[in-house]
Every structure is written in C-alpha cells, then in structure tokens.
Specification:
The structure holds two protein chains of two kinds. By secondary structure, chain A is mainly alpha-helical. Chain A has one domain: Four Helix Bundle (Hemerythrin (Met), subunit A) (Up-down Bundle), CATH 1.20.120. Chain A is built from six helices and no strands. In chain A, helix 2 packs parallel to helix 6 and helix 3 runs antiparallel to helix 6. The longest helix of chain A has about 45 residues. Chain A starts with 8 loop residues before the first helix and ends with a helix. By secondary structure, chain B is mainly α. Chain B has one domain. Helix content of chain B is about 85%, strand content about 0%. Chain B has nine helices and no strands. The chains are: A mainly alpha, B mainly alpha. At the A-B interface, helix 4 and helix 5 of A face helix 8 and helix 9 of B.
Chain lengths: ~240, ~220
Amino acid sequence: MSIWEYANPKKFMETSGWVLPWVIGLTALTLIPGLVWGYFFTPQAENFGATVKIIYIHVPAAMIAINAWLMMLVASMIWLVRRHHVSALAAKAAAPIGMTMTLIALITGAVWGQPMWGTWWAWDPRLTSFLVLFLFYLGYMALWEAIDNPDTAADLTAVLCIVGSVFALLSRYAVNFWNQGLHQAASLSVDKEEHVADVFYKPLVLCIVGFILLFVTLVLLRTRTEVRARRLKALEARERMA
Amino acid sequence: MIALLFRDMRLAVRAGGGFGLGLAFFLIVTVLIPFGVGPQSEILGRIAPGVLWVAALLACLLSLDRIFALDYEDGSLDLLATAPLPLEGVVAMKALAHWLTTGLPLTLVAPGLGLLLNMPEDAYFWLVVTLLLGTPALSYIGTFGAALTVGLKRGGLLLSLLVLPLYMPTLIFGAEALRRGADGMANTTPLFMLAGITLFTIALLPFVAAAAVRINLR
C-alpha cells in the first residue's frame, strides 16, 4: 500500500468520489462559521474600523494563491519523474484556482487599500510580486490551452512551471530590492509573537482552514473533470478508429 | 558548433530581414515615447534610462520566434537534433547567435537613442554596461520560451506572454543598476545580481530549452 496507488486514474476516481462529499461538508463547516464569525461577531479594530474584516478573505486567498503554485510545482515534478497522468491533470486543474485566488487577493487588497492607504494600487513589493504571480498563472494556462497533444502539453507546462518557480522567486527578491514596502509585515507566524489580537486571530485561522479545504475540494472536482474529459477523448478516438 | 553559430548569424542577417527589424523597432519605440509623454527635455531625460531598457527588451522579444521556427519548418531542426553535437550545444549556440545579432547591436545603438531622449551624461557609460551584461540573459531566456512554443503555428503572442514575466528580474536589476549609476550612487549590488542572472541563464537554460525542444520534436 503506497501513495502511488492513487496515481492510477481508476483508483483515484473511486477514492476521490468517496472523499469528495466529506471534504465539501468540512469546507462548509469551517468556511461558513469562520466568515460569519469574522464578519458579525468581531469588534472593529482600532484605526482600521470595519475594513479589518476584509482580512478574513484577503489573507487566506493570498496564502492559497502562493501554495497553489507550490502544489503545481510538486505535481509537475511528479509527472516529469513518474509519468502519472493524474498528477499532470491535478497541476492543470489547480492553475485556474490559483489564478482566481491571486485575483481575489489583489482585488480585496485594492478595496482595503483605497480607504486605508488612500490608493487602489501602489508599486509595493508584495503587491507587485502578486501581480507577477498572476502573470505566471496566465502564461501557464495559456500554454496548456495552446498545445493539442495532451502529453506534450503536460511536459512543456511542467518544465515551464519549474523554470517559472525559479524566476518567480527571483522576481520576489528583485522587487523587494527595487522598492520599499507599504504593505504591513506578516500578521501571522508559527514561531514569533507577532500575531494579530486573539479576537481576530481565531476566526482567521478558521477561515484559513476553510480556504485550504475549499482549495482541496476544487482541485479534486476539477481533476475529476479532467480525467473524465480525457476518457471521453479516448472513447471518441476509439470510435473514429472503428 | 562554430559553424552552426556562423550559419545562424548569416541566416539572421541575410534572410528575412530579422536583423534590421529589431533595431528599427528599437528606434521607433524610442521615437514614440516623446510623442506620448511630451517633449519637455527634463522629463525625457529622467525616464530615458528606463525607457531604453524596456524598448531594448521589447526589441529582443520581437525576433525570438525566429530562433527555432524556420529550422522547425524546413526540417533542419530534426537534423540538428540527431546530429552528433548535443542538442544543448545547438540551443546554446542559437541563443548566442541571437544575442550577437540582436542584443549586441541594440547595446551599440542605445547611446545614440539616449541622445534623442536627452539622457544625462553620466548615464551613457552605465547604459552600455548594463545592456551588455543584461541582454545575453534576455536572449537565453527567450530561447527557452521559443523552445517551448516551437511546434505551435501561431506561437508569437503566447511566446511574449510566457517570456515577459521571466524577463522581469533582469529588467528590474538592469534598470536599477543603470538608474543608480546615472545618479552617482553605488550600484554594485544590482550590477552583480544582473551579472549573476546572466551567468545563471547561460549556464542552465540551454539544458531546459533543449529538453523542451526534444519534447516538441517527439
């Protein structure tokens, strides 16, 4: 019994079909209370007023946006090394989700920045690197769309994902070097005492867990769709041959 | 390898006019800038270094799809892939040929265009230095992008979407080194970072690009 068993599409479909309702339920159980708690049962923060509530969407979305790319990177490497099709399809499935999360983080950030910083957009390192990340997602998805042969597409996008990761990291340091930041430092961390106040912290953690589960749900759903689309294509091809 | 280098350079210079096209594009973009922002010389002088870097980058982008496309169409890329010379070497030479026919001429004409934009005097030296250090990275990254899109019929637009995000660190460090140098500040850090990126891309990207070409030829 090893994890690679789930690389078999049939096994993957069985297991994910069984797991999916549970993950959906858990997502609803964490995300809805988290957001309701955050929006209606937390006090308004000093200096920030009600705008602080945007944190419950902004921070989890931003975390998912970065980690979705990491997941794609791992899935791409697994595809390149072990040639498991499910892995390549999972990377393909995660890209639009990551892009949407990047967009959500950018938009909620802009909505928050307008009253707080007095501007929708500033060329701050964090903002800029998120915009760059958004462009990387766009390029990755465009390459998937452009190539007809699915295996070639999977190979080339995997290579692009790996090279892109290196350059995305490089861009992150480059923009840090290039401009001073307006964005506040991290408000969460595992080891340091730099958390936001407890009243905001608890619902935020609940929201983050909810967003992670939401991401898992969406990736599973989209991967299942991709596997089915691939099967459909194979069936059509077989029919044409017959 | 040398023969291949000369062959690619001859093709770039003689066939299809891709050689002059990049330079002409560089000139036109630079001429368009004053029309866009107005003819006041102090504004132009201030933005000139950045504008020249961006224009050079775009001019570099223009000729990228020629690196592999013609060879792919007439089948010589298949021959090169099966030749005794490793494909990594072929790719590296093609990137070098692209730099010699695009990046280097751009670097040489850039000071002339700086005159048009009323660039401050201290900036000329740094303009040439940063472009000389940075444009090889543009060629090598671009070769990787071209390798990804070899088999596509209309890869040009996709190529720019793929390559431009990869160009960002090079542009940031190049333009930053130039700006600091022009203002008389210390610019060794961005200069070293720029040189580092260039060396890194020259050393590693031919391998990745060759892998992409192999996938495309499969």
